[in-house]
Amino acid sequence: MAKVKKLKPFINGRFVESATEKYTNAYDPSTGEVIAKVPCCTKDEVLAAVESAKEAYPAWSATPVQKRVQILYKMRELIVEHMDELTYLVALENGKNWAEAQGDVLKAKEGTEQAISAPSLMMGESLMDASKGYDTVLYREPLGVFAGIVPFNFPSMIPMGWMTPICIACGNTIVLKAATFTPQSALRFAELYQEAGLPDGVINIVTCSRNESEILLTHPDIKGITFVGSTSVGLHIYSTAAAAGKRVQALCEAKNHALVLNDAPVKRVAAGIINSAFGCAGERCMALPVVVAQDGIADELAAEIVEQAKLLRIGPAYEKTTKLGPVINAAHKQSVLNWIQKGIDEGATVALDGRNVVVPGYENGFYLGPTVLDHVRPGMAVGDQEIFGPVLCMKRVKTFEEGLALMNKNPFANGSVIFTQNGHYAREFVRHTDGGMVGVNVGIPVPIGMFPFSGHKHSFFGDLHCLGKDAYRFFTETKVVTTRWFDEEESKVTSVSTWDGTI
After folding, report:
1. Can you tell me the distance from the alpha carbon of 285 to that of 240, in angstroms, rounded to the nearest whole number?
2. Which of 18, 41, 107, 336 would give a disulfide with 157, using CB separation of 3.0 to 4.6 Å?
3. What is the mean pLDDT of residues 48-69?
């Protein structure tokens, strides 16, 4: 039985004992055992984290960007050095299989590498003689303290790849509200940042309920919020924090669809769909939970998906032969089971049933096998709303146009995919899909970190996305300076135009 850790928040460069009396269990999803007691930090502890970040900001923002990224260079080295440890920690607390957990950590490394580019990407613009004798320079400056509100599903990538590196590289400080179910990865990263030489208070990590995290949305010292999670919570965060004058990026739910045309190669497409639908146990907003197949290929494709899905080895996350690990906890497993039953009640056909999976030696783990619901019709909730589990819904259409229209009716638009060998239809799809991240024969069209993670519609609230150049704009504000130097003649001028220097 795993040793149960009593976790502590990370404030002002050290772990501190929480004064709370309320702790939540965090589990090893592979065994169902409790592995950590996670504090619900008090209001005073959240305020202390904000104060710590505020106090660290003046010195950190005044540190030249070139020196700030030297710490990130060191942090990258530490991620590589501790790769196996960090991978195991993700697998242990989240349930991703080993390769997926390692990818989670590698994405944190990728975000760190993007932040190392800050000296170039923070550079502003300038123009001499913008108006006769007037020179204008644009600078990008940090804003202050940011808050990151983290989901459970990517415990390394999201807090330590998407949120923290570019934020602090730009000269800001940050308070992370780590996910209660999976906080240990972020806390370990914080230790490594200290080892890399990051000053106290630049990164602070708390775990708490929504009641305490609400403080972050309106606190006068918080300049911006970066959030990943459900659409209902994201909309609340966006509306509340924006009304308080803060900048917000809220990355929310998805129901990504793939349109499969009759000319697509069935076996290869099925393999791509298997990876996209069931990878990470379906617990990712860029999963591919819906296939929209043309009638001419639908039966053959459904049969091939079922046959390939049956071959997935289900098992504990940290065994390297496992292909499909558990979901996060018992409550979430029950939620997914309820969704499967709802799909059946709505009239879907169960082509593959993963509800009764038992893994020998791990009978108490939170396992679900791959499930395929066929003949899902428009309007069925199971095909339109996010399930966040290893469940694939198959819809059928007659034409490309019908399929595209069906997909675009969905209120979510994180990603969309087309499988075809036809260049015309591929181009039409890219041009007219509502999806913000589009795949042509790519099941998970998540771009690498130099591009933004650009969800649309109810999958995103805000103006600037995470990663890419958008991130540098989000974590900085522009200052435009216009300069005029007087020569001897102009120093004698006694009358100045209303439009001095602007026309």
Report:
1. 23
2. 107
3. 98
Helix, strand, coil % in the chain, rounded to nearest 5: 40, 25, 35
**What is the tally of helices (H) and strands (E) in the chain?**
17, 23
Say if residue 503's pLDDT is above 90. Answer: no
CA distance 339 to 398: 27
Looking at the DSSP bridge assignments, the partners of residue 257 are 290, 416
133: left (phi over 0), alpha (psi -120 to 50) or beta: left
Residue entry with tokens 């929480």? 18
From the list 41, 208, 252, 285, the catalytic residue is 285
Q: Are 432 and 407 in contact (CB under 8 A)?
A: no
pLDDT band with cut points at 50, 70 and 90 for residue 367: very high
d(CA 155, CA 163): 12
Among candidate residues 275, 269, 279, 277, the one with its CA nearest the CA of residue 304:
269
Distance, in Å, from the CA atom of 150 to the CA atom of 164, rounded to the nearest integer, reads: 11
Q: What confidence tens digit (pLDDT) does each residue in 61-101 have?
A: 999 999 999 999 999 999 999 999 999 999 999 999 999 99
Q: Decide: 178 and 149 in contact? Cβ < 8 Å.
A: no
Q: Which two tokens stand for residue 141?
A: 């400056």
pLDDT at 474: 98
Contact 347, 380 (CB under 8 A): yes
Per-residue pLDDT band at 256 (split at 50, 70, 90):
very high
Q: Using an 8 Å Cβ cutoff, are 403 and 294 in contact?
A: yes
Q: How far apart are CA 333 and CA 355, in angstroms?
A: 10
DSSP state, 499?
Answer: T
3-state SS string over 288-310? Answer: CCEEEEEHHHHHHHHHHHHHHHH
Active site residue 285: yes
